[in-house]
Design goal:
transmembrane; mainly alpha; membrane; Sap-like sulfolipid-1-addressing protein; 8 helices; transmembrane helix; 186 residues
Length: 186
């Protein structure tokens, strides 16, 4: 559990959420910075080759989400030890958020983040566009925790589950992601 158990806890839930969110933003920003640096390796490739590679990655992502091909996604099967969040909750929340924000700490089940990452790597955009995209990834991961905290109702989880098919239409999200990456090439 990320949050403290209640109002009597030594650390308020809002503080933990803020530190966790900061970690997510920092992690996403760092990953984007690394992608931007590595994208220099793709810069010598002709634009048509890079665009073709991005399209191929996008088609593969859509085919994976549709179940037409089986492509295993990278994952880190380790879990964060409970001690991280129990001993020093602010520091643990920052560490946990940072690791989640990098996108390499846990399994990301959808292909869209990988399509974006490879698209940014191949597109070789400027640092601002790339870093804002990574920061947006971290912010996107923070939304669920923030909405859950703001709702303060246990039935929120039930409502989220019933709406999840709309939120996780992986094929549509992957297609939109691929189109957005191609617009970056524009």
């Amino acid at each position: 559990m990320l949050f403290s158990p209640g109002w009597r806890a030594p650390v308020r839930q809002g503080q933990v959420l803020a530190v966790f969110t900061l970690g997510l933003l920092l992690g996403g920003t760092l990953t984007a910075g690394v992608l931007w640096l590595l994208s220099g390796l793709a810069a010598p490739l002709p634009g048509a080759v890079r665009t073709g590679a991005i399209l191929a990655v996008a088609v593969l992502g859509v085919a994976r989400e549709a179940g037409w091909v089986r492509v295993p996604l990278p994952q880190n099967a380790r879990q964060i030890p409970q001690e991280v969040l129990q001993r020093r909750i602010r520091r643990g929340a920052l560490q946990f958020g940072f690791e989640l924000g990098t996108g390499v700490r846990t399994f990301v089940s959808a292909g869209a983040p990988y399509v974006v990452a490879l698209g940014l790597l191949l597109a070789h955009q400027g640092p601002v566009t790339t870093i804002l995209t990574g920061t947006g990834f971290g912010a996107g991961r923070a939304v669920t925790a923030a909405v859950r905290y703001a709702s303060r109702h246990d039935e929120w989880d039930d409502r989220r589950v019933t709406r999840m098919p709309l939120l996780t239409n992986a094929i549509g999200i992957t297609v939109l992601t691929a189109l957005a990456v191609l617009l970056l090439l524009g």
